[in-house]
Amino acid sequence: MWLDPADDPRDTDLVPRGEKAVLTEYLRTYRLTLELKCQDLDAEQLARRSVPPSTMSLLGLVRHLADVEHKWFQRVLTGRDVPRLYESPDDADLDFNGAVAEQAVVDDAFATWREQVHLAEEYLAGVEDLGATVSHHGDDVEIRDIVVHMVEEYARHCGHADLLRECIDGRTGQ
Length: 174
What we know:
This protein is mainly alpha-helical. The chain has a single domain, classed as Up-down Bundle (Four Helix Bundle (Hemerythrin (Met), subunit A)), CATH 1.20.120.450. It has helices at 19-38, 43-47, 58-77, 94-97, 103-125, 143-169, and strands at 133-136, 139-142. A two-stranded antiparallel sheet has the order 1-2. β1 and β2 form a beta hairpin. α1 packs parallel to α6 (143-169). It is globular, with a radius of gyration of 17 Å. The protein starts with 18 loop residues before the first helix and ends in a 5-residue tail after the last helix. It comes from Nocardioides islandensis.
């Protein structure tokens, strides 16, 4: 096992009740899973690419998910007019392409991701109605839909992270 079940930060004695609590708990758990999959790896291991021609790496996933959190919670839900993270006119996939084996890049990626997670958690804490809508590309989108999309995004990428980590040192599970 990855962790002794008694030490797993994802397991709590709390049973979420209600839609918002359940969705928030799923999101919290997947965020922790991503962090666990990256635990105890150095910059080279985190930046190690999967199978050519893919540019996917654990570090790239952290950067990508920081960008996804930023897009949905800061740009769409709060309506802030701020540039996307890890994007340039020359490289729309800078989140993955810029995930290089340098400690400064690793430190920045995790700090940025943690900041975006914190801002998203603050936003969700203030939401009373997940059925409230925001405008996105001219359509009304429910907050609920965005939160479910975030759960799906993390679930998919935690599957990728599981395979990437197994390739690095053979660790699997949880």
